[in-house]
TrEMBL record:
GO cellular component terms given for this protein: chromatin; chromosome, centromeric region; Ctf18 RFC-like complex
UniProt keywords, alphabetically: DNA replication
Keyword Transmembrane carried by entry: no
UniProt source species: Byssochlamys spectabilis (strain No. 5 / NBRC 109023) (Paecilomyces variotii)
Superkingdom as given in the UniProt entry: Eukaryota
Name under which the protein is recorded: Sister chromatid cohesion protein Dcc1
Record-linked Pfam families: Dcc1
PANTHER family: SISTER CHROMATID COHESION PROTEIN DCC1, SISTER CHROMATID COHESION PROTEIN DCC1-RELATED
GO biological process, any: maintenance of mitotic sister chromatid cohesion
Similarity comment text for this entry: Belongs to the DCC1 family.
Keyword ATP-binding attributed: no
Length: 387
């Protein structure tokens, strides 16, 4: 029978206990925090005006931990074993409840529990990751006007804004989106969002996202202009030359230059750094073909009640592509889940929110059976000691 040579250590507890929350860091976050030039992390949650649009209250009440490029959901996990936060005695003078020194007590070999944690906080990334698209779709105003829509002067409603002013407006918007800045920028580019003057003629900028109709109109002018001016969009070309090709005969802008740049950035192979003006570009054939097909379907058949004949859709899709790309237009080129059919001959568009609901249902069904992990901390510590 083994015996202890050292004296026993007193174990006490304080009252009241202190409030502690334990946060379990995944390796990738710990690695970032350990660097000399560690990035700044932000705690972000959706603002009330955006969260109220979500159907389930539980889905709105959360906080995300965001690095410049990554997002982690903070969630509370109950532990099967309570965790005590211990504090060894530092040898200082102890005082009783009346403020009198208790010099007669030998507390030099005492450990005190100052907090008890029945749960922990962990960082979680869902299987599908995080996206800023659903938040941006609700936060951005829809731009749905063109110069040929009637008494609309595109030049008149715009205001001259510097690159710094545009960036400041966008960063202000991103601050209220509960994902990382990089993911906000990715969603911004995906929606072809841009900064332009408001439709009331006020001297202020607004963050917009173009409607599917407007995006198709911009692409059509870009395609027609490239053909007329002999610009091969698959090869490197000057973005300024393509912009000149889309202008009206009287040099009137059919749409804002910022909108043109946003659509072009969505389609080029290497868009470059954020907020940098595109000078040279070449269009990504596969990405552009898919985008044109999905955008046309969204503008023509946004709901099941507006479904169109599948062959008519394919023919129209091909007509909106360069002649050498027509053979690329097929349903297999579209994003999975971006369309459905009410019957074998029709087709209609499925928006991002509906796709995520379908994807989430499938993931939850599988995750319920596979995502269970042990929260027994004594087992975790035991496994670490064995390594």
């Amino acid at each position: 029978m083994s015996t202890q040579a050292a004296r026993s250590i007193r174990f006490t507890h304080t009252f009241p206990q202190q409030g502690f929350r334990l946060l379990e860091l995944p390796p990738e976050v710990l690695e970032l925090l350990s660097k000399e030039d560690a990035p700044v992390f932000h705690l972000k949650s959706p603002p009330s005006d955006l969260s109220q649009t979500t159907g389930e209250p539980a889905a709105r009440e959360y906080v995300n931990l965001c690095s410049p490029t990554q997002t982690f959901r903070i969630r509370q996990v109950q532990s099967s074993n309570s965790i005590h936060i211990l504090k060894p005695n530092d040898g200082s003078t102890q005082l009783n409840d009346n403020g009198i020194e208790t010099g007669d007590l030998d507390l030099s070999e005492t450990v005190t529990t100052i907090a008890k944690c029945g749960s922990t906080l962990e960082l979680h990334v869902p299987p599908g990751g995080f996206s800023a698209v659903p938040f941006l779709e609700k936060a951005l105003r829809v731009y749905d006007r063109l110069s040929w829509d009637g008494d609309v002067s595109i030049r008149g409603v715009g205001i001259e804004m510097t690159m710094a002013e545009r960036r400041a407006l966008k960063e202000k918007l991103f601050a209220d989106i509960p994902v990382s800045t990089a993911q906000c920028q990715s969603g911004w580019d995906e929606l072809c969002a841009f900064v332009h003057g408001d439709d009331a003629g006020n001297d202020r900028g607004v963050c917009w996202r173009p409607s599917a109709r407007v995006k198709m109109a911009v692409w059509k002018r870009m395609l027609e202009g490239s053909v007329l001016q002999g610009i091969d969009i698959e090869k490197q070309f000057l973005a300024g030359d393509l912009w000149k090709a889309v202008l009206d005969d009287d040099e009137e802008e059919p749409f804002p230059r910022a909108l043109f740049d946003a659509v072009l950035k969505r389609l080029v192979e290497a868009p470059g750094a954020n907020d940098m003006e595109i000078k040279w570009a070449n269009v990504d054939k596969a990405a552009c073909t898919r985008w044109v097909g999905e955008t046309y379907l969204q503008s023509s058949a946004p709901t099941a009640s507006a479904a169109i004949v599948r062959t008519d859709f394919l023919n129209a899709w091909r007509d909106h592509l360069p002649e050498s790309w027509r053979s690329e237009a097929s349903l297999s080129a579209l994003t999975n889940g971006s369309y459905r059919s009410t019957d074998p001959t029709t087709i209609y568009f499925i928006d991002y929110a509906e796709r995520e609901k379908t994807k989430g249902s499938a993931v939850n069904g599988v995750g319920a059976a596979t995502a269970k992990t042990s929260r027994n901390w004594h087992e975790r510590f035991r496994n670490q000691r064995r390594q």
